[in-house]
Fold:
Amino acid sequence: MGFFDNIKKGIKDVFSNAKDDMSYRVKRGAERKLEDAADSAAERVTEAYDERKKERQAQKADEAAAKAAARVCPQCGRRPDADEKFCAECGARIVEKYRVCSVCGAHADADEKFCTECGGAITEKVSGTEE
Ligand SMILES: [Zn+2]
Ligand SMILES: [Zn+2]
Structure:
């Protein structure tokens, strides 16, 4: 191999190394971008999931509160504490009164006459007596 051949080879190597280095950097950059995109996508999914979870928890708390408020002594009309199964005043079994849509079964607020979901008539139910 002649002197010029060596120089040519040396120059080629330098270029080829630079090219490798460049493509490596480009690749790393692209990888990092992909990783970032994947991270933020995962973050968004997690956020959406947390949001749904919070909504479900709030809904559950609302339902529990509505249920607790609906408990009543069928005999003396007393509002019992949450842990009373039988009335502390007269011994009658505590029931739950709640208002539901007669058409779709959605729970209704005390002042609703018609279902906000389907327009059906609201009826009052007492736990244990349906069906
Ligand atoms: Zn009672
Ligand atoms: Zn309804």
In short: Residues 73-131 form one domain. The two ends are 101 Å apart (CA to CA).
